[in-house]
Write a structure and sequence with these properties.
By secondary structure, the protein is an alpha/beta fold. The chain folds into three domains: 3-193, Methylesterase CheB, C-terminal domain (Rossmann fold), CATH 3.40.50; 216-257, no CATH class; 264-331. Helix content is 43%, strand content 19%. The protein has eleven helices and 15 strands. It has a seven-stranded parallel β-sheet, with helices on both faces. A four-stranded antiparallel β-sheet has the order 12-13-14-15. A hairpin with a 6-residue loop joins strand 13 (241-244) and strand 14. Helix 1 packs parallel to helix 2, helix 4 runs parallel beside helix 5 and helix 9 runs antiparallel to helix 10. The chain is elongated, with a radius of gyration of 25 Å. One of its GO terms (cellular component) is cytoplasm.
Length: 346
């Protein structure tokens, strides 16, 4: 295929991302010969004010993405709540496919779809955010000859997403968010082969189809199983078996399509453990209070041995509740969303 320019820029951000995106948009040239697609983690309900914010911040026209719309150069499209923002056959796809790391829209879903659809014509940009959404997608872009850019972690309000990208991907440029646009203005004018010489892992195409919600559910399940191995871990969303998508065990999917990176899964499991401990504390305190009532009732009716037995149950539950309450308030380890990425890149 004849040479073509790098004409698609995909951007991902999470916590602290609005400020980074505002500075990024301000640095883009008005005549940028590429379309820009942006995912910022959003709550599922309501409307997003991000298009208006970015439209005021920079020279490009910013608007909410619409399903089926062709990509236009010098336009900036933002994800809408509760939908993945994807690219397929040169058009925008909005999908309610399975969540990734608990998010919809997800950065990895956008990056992966762009890599599969456009190959080396894609530039991926990772900005401020917690955990590691975007790292796997940025790796897919690089694997197909695209360009990888990360915000300077020292500038990011939340540095985990840029840090994780730098730890696991050969990033081409590391810059403050306000200076990324100048580099992109140069890179988009490069002419590259229209298709990558390296088609990339088959799992990327399978995951791109899952994100688009294409095909029969049983077919999707079989495709996941064909490119993965059972991990022995459970999906936090549906409690189904997670299958490992790589030998290192850094990425997982369940049979219905929920996707997790190892770090996001660890964080979610930690939250689940704390919730279970609070539920156990509530159950113990309820058992204690019920034992008090039953002991008093038995004593009132003259059943002193029964009353004593319930008093022992009360004491046991009260002791266990006290131990658990002390652990929850004073000893439960705190799992930081910033995790260990800064250590990896130090």
């Amino acid at each position: 295929m004849a040479g073509q320019p790098r004409d698609l820029i995909v951007v991902g951000a999470s916590a602290g991302g609005v400020e980074a995106l505002r500075e990024f948009a301000a640095g883009l040239p008005a005549d940028l010969p590429a379309a820009v697609l942006v995912v910022l983690h959003l709550p599922p309900g309501g409307a997003s004010a991000l298009p208006a914010i970015l439209d005021r911040a920079g020279p490009l026209h910013a608007l909410s993405a619409r399903d089926g719309e062709p990509l236009r150069r010098a336009h900036l499209y933002t994800a809408v709540p509760d939908h993945h923002l994807l690219v397929h056959d040169g058009r925008i796809v909005l999908s309610r496919g399975p969540t990734e790391n608990g998010y919809r829209p997800a950065v990895d879903a956008l990056f992966r779809s762009a890599a599969v659809d456009r190959g080396p014509r894609v530039i991926g940009v990772v900005l401020s955010g917690a955990l590691d959404d975007g790292t796997a997608g940025l790796a897919a872009i690089k694997a197909r000859g695209g360009v990888a850019v990360a915000q300077d972690p020292h500038e990011a309000i939340y540095r985990a997403m840029p840090d994780n990208a730098l730890a696991r991907v050969a990033v081409d440029h590391v810059l403050p968010s306000g200076k990324i646009g100048g580099v992109l203005a140069e890179r988009v004018r490069e002419v590259v082969d229209g298709e990558s010489n390296d088609p990339g892992p088959a799992v990327d195409e399978v995951e791109a189809r899952i994100a688009r919600s294409e095909g029969n559910a049983n077919v999707v399940s079989r495709e996941v199983f064909d490119v993965s191995q059972p991990s022995g871990l459970a999906c936090p969303d549906c409690h189904g078996v997670l299958h490992s998508l790589d030998e290192a065990g850094t990425r997982y999917r369940c049979r219905v399509g929920h996707a997790w990176t190892a770090k996001a899964l660890f964080y979610q499991q930690s939250l689940g453990i704390e919730q279970a401990l609070w539920a156990a504390l509530r159950a113990l305190e309820e058992k204690r209070d019920l034992a008090i009532r039953m002991s008093q009732d038995a004593d009132h009716r003259g059943f002193h041995l029964v009353s004593a037995r319930y008093e022992r149950h009360r004491a046991e539950a009260d002791h266990a509740a006290g131990v658990l309450r002390t652990f929850l308030f004073e000893e439960l380890p705190i799992v930081d969303e910033a995790d260990d990425a800064s250590d990896e890149t130090a």
